[in-house]
UniProtKB/TrEMBL annotation:
<dbReference type="GO" id="GO:0006635">
    <property type="term" value="P:fatty acid beta-oxidation"/>
</dbReference>
<dbReference type="Pfam" id="PF00106">
    <property type="entry name" value="adh_short"/>
</dbReference>
<dbReference type="GO" id="GO:0008670">
    <property type="term" value="F:2,4-dienoyl-CoA reductase (NADPH) activity"/>
</dbReference>
<protein>
    <submittedName>
        <fullName>Uncharacterized protein</fullName>
    </submittedName>
</protein>
<dbReference type="GO" id="GO:0005739">
    <property type="term" value="C:mitochondrion"/>
</dbReference>
<dbReference type="InterPro" id="IPR002347">
    <property type="entry name" value="SDR_fam"/>
</dbReference>
<dbReference type="InterPro" id="IPR036291">
    <property type="entry name" value="NAD(P)-bd_dom_sf"/>
</dbReference>
<keyword id="KW-0560">Oxidoreductase</keyword>
Length: 96
């Protein structure tokens, strides 16, 4: 698999674009971390994936829009998953 052994972080991964990117990366073998301020959106995202894909999904209920939140996300990824290899920004309203 193309991304096996890699960790990808998606800011905005609970949205339409971000969740599609997460699905593609998971199918290619990556561990995919997604953060959101909303635990409910993270739970809904998890439910949308098969049990096999869920094994490599990392959900972090934290606000990346704050310095403290961004630092906490980075710390979790460094300490628990060995860091981050890929970062994707898919958050915000692209139509505004």
């Amino acid at each position: 698999m193309k991304y096996s052994g890699r960790v990808a972080f998606i800011a905005g991964g609970t949205g339409i674009v971000g969740s599609g990117c997460a699905r593609s990366l998971l199918k290619e073998g990556a561990k995919v971390a997604v953060s959101s301020r909303s635990q409910q959106r993270l739970d809904d995202l998890k439910k949308s994936f098969s049990a096999d894909l869920q094994k490599n999904l990392i959900l972090i209920a934290e606000d990346i829009g704050t310095e403290a939140g961004a630092k906490k996300i980075l710390k979790i990824l460094q300490e628990q998953h060995g860091g981050v290899h890929h970062v994707l920004s898919a958050f915000g309203k692209w139509w505004e």
